[in-house]
Design a protein that fits this description.
single chain, 475 residues, alpha/beta, Rossmann fold, ten-stranded mixed β-sheet, 15 helices, binds ligand L263DTV3, binds uridine-5'-diphosphate, alpha,alpha-trehalose-phosphate synthase (UDP-forming) activity
């Protein structure tokens, strides 16, 4: 079997026990630990002299590098997170475009290819992750790299009317056609991309389902990222420090807990969620003092202006709710800006009656799946889930809500807290079936299997005397 080379902007912290930032790092870390290989990307540092560093842990070689300040500003903070992220999450109002940042983004992609190239073997399978690295395959091909290259987009792919807001959308999306396989979280995302290719650039859907555009033929597919359910449950069971997790009433009865965990990002719908919680306490006063809401929201991309704004807004909303509703012996909302160890989170999930996951848009949202997988099957909690999270496509037995509907979310909280055991178990069983059917191994194995099958045909074409790069998929 060929070696797996994973490339992503974010690489999970190399030291065991350090907290991974976000679902990509969590997911790729678990997937790569099983198969082994190379994980190449940014080490999260910004300094003048970006040196490459290789560290081997188990069967994975982590090859990471720092970025210099200009590259960081233009590629990560700028085009990736101030242009692509908001637009791909339908927040055109928060996006800005700067041509120099776009050029910096292209330059960093090309630079990363040149750094990776000497490490590659001819039969390596290269798997590129996420919106930071869309042009990576094109830069590889320009540099003469002929390996199979797949791409997985962790975030939503928006409707063509939204994506065309990016001034160089044509040039940018053309580079996706240099991959052999482009994977999405949901069929909705895949169809939006296919729509763009067929309508905007007059691409063609072939009989085998592949796409031909800009003279290149390539495949697309849907590979929802998952979790390792047994591992989640194990972590949840291993967390014993109960006293940190639950609040008690003055009469000694345990308060019910609503829990949310998100990076502090405007796409996660935190303001709308806080307002819904306040509306719930106003409209259903019988729950007051009997419930508390724990929102864990570690800061993220805190040097991007829109993230500073959302942080200020949330601090004010949280202060407002607690100022208005708290009592000497009851704080309705616990808002924690700190990241937490996974074991603590899974322990918290398993003890919370409600998982409140209501992003305005989300590629998948692993927290939703983790919350369900952490539950005690004999007495499971209830997941309230936004219809705009990729996870809602699979977890249709959650209480599905529209995060723009404040009263609807307040009603869902009331319903969740009152839900009888039989209904909770029924919904939990359905969701666990979906979580097991599309777990993390399935995500990795399905993607790599499809990428490999493409290669077999490439090889056939190559034998017939064609150059590998000119090969066309034959089904
Ligand atoms: O690397 P950062 O800038 O600190 O951001 C963290 C990650 O956020 C995003 O995660 C996405 O991937 C998850 C796993 O597939 C998915 O569940 C979630 O819906 C996405 O938002 C981002 O896409 C990653 O590149 C970042 O590393
Ligand atoms: O303090 C924290 C906050 C989050 N996470 C993990 O980070 C991931 C977040 O992934 P998700 O897909 O929900 O959202 P993203 O942050 O990638 O947009 C989940 O595995 C969380 O358990 C963590 O380990 N510690």
């Amino acid at each position: 079997m060929s070696r797996l080379v994973v490339v992503s902007n974010r690489v999970a912290p190399i030291k065991e026990g350090k907290i991974a930032a976000g679902g990509l790092a969590v997911g790729v870390y678990d997937a790569l630990r099983q198969s082994g290989g190379i994980w190449f990307g940014w080490n999260g540092e910004v300094n003048k002299n970006p040196q490459m560093r290789t560290e081997t842990v188990g069967n994975v070689d982590y090859v990471t590098m720092a970025l210099n300040k200009t590259d960081y500003d233009q590629y990560y903070r700028g085009f990736s997170n101030a242009t692509l992220w908001p637009i791909f999450h339908y927040r055109v109002d928060l996006a800005r475009y700067n041509r120099e940042e776009y050029e910096g983004y292209r330059r960093v992609n090309a630079m990363m290819v040149e750094k990776l190239k000497p490490l590659l073997r001819p039969d390596d399978t290269i798997w590129i992750h996420d919106y930071h690295l869309i042009p990576f395959a094109e830069a590889c091909r320009m540099s003469g790299i002929r390996n199979r290259i797949g791409f997985f987009l962790h975030i939503p792919f928006p409707a063509p009317g939204i994506i065309t807001v990016i001034p160089p959308h044509n040039e940018l999306l053309k580079t996706l056609c240099y991959y052999d396989l482009v994977g999405f979280q949901t069929e909705c995302d895949r169809l939006a991309f296919q729509d763009y290719i067929t309508r905007e650039v007059r691409g063609v859907i072939e009989r085998d389902g592949s796409l031909t555009a800009y003279g290149r033929n390539f495949h697309t597919g849907v590979y929802p990222i998952g979790v390792v359910p047994d591992n989640v449950r194990q972590l949840a069971n291993s967390y014993r420090e109960r006293r940190h997790l639950v609040g008690y009433n003055s009469d000694g009865r345990r308060r019910k807990t609503i829990v949310s965990v998100d990076r502090l990002d405007y796409s996660k719908g935190l303001v709308e969620r806080f307002r819904a919680y306040a509306a719930f306490l106003e409209n259903f006063p019988e729950h007051r003092r009997k419930v508390e809401f724990i929102q864990i929201a570690p800061t993220s991309r805190s040097d991007v202006k829109t993230y500073q704004t959302i942080r200020r807004q949330l601090e004010s909303e949280a202060g407002h709710i607690n100022g208005r509703l708290s009592d000497l012996d009851w704080t309705p909302l616990h808002y924690l800006n700190k990241s937490h160890d996974r074991r603590v989170l899974m322990g918290l999930f398993s003890r919370a009656e409600v998982g409140f996951v209501t992003p305005l848009r989300d590629g998948m949202n692993l927290v939703a799946k983790e919350y369900v997988a952490a539950q005690n099957p004999d007495d499971p909690g209830v997941l309230i889930l936004s219809r705009f999270a990729g996870a809602a496509q699979e977890l249709s037995s959650a209480l599905i809500v529209n995060p723009y509907d404040c009263i609807g979310m307040a009603e869902a909280l009331d319903r969740a807290l009152r839900m009888p055991l039989a209904e909770r178990k029924d919904r939990y069983e359905h969701m666990m079936q979906a979580i097991r059917a599309a777990d993390l191994d399935t995500w990795r194995d399905d993607f790599l299997r499809d990428l490999q099958s493409f290669t077999i045909h490439q090889a056939v074409e190559a034998e017939k005397g064609k150059s590998v790069n000119e090969a066309v998929f034959v089904s």
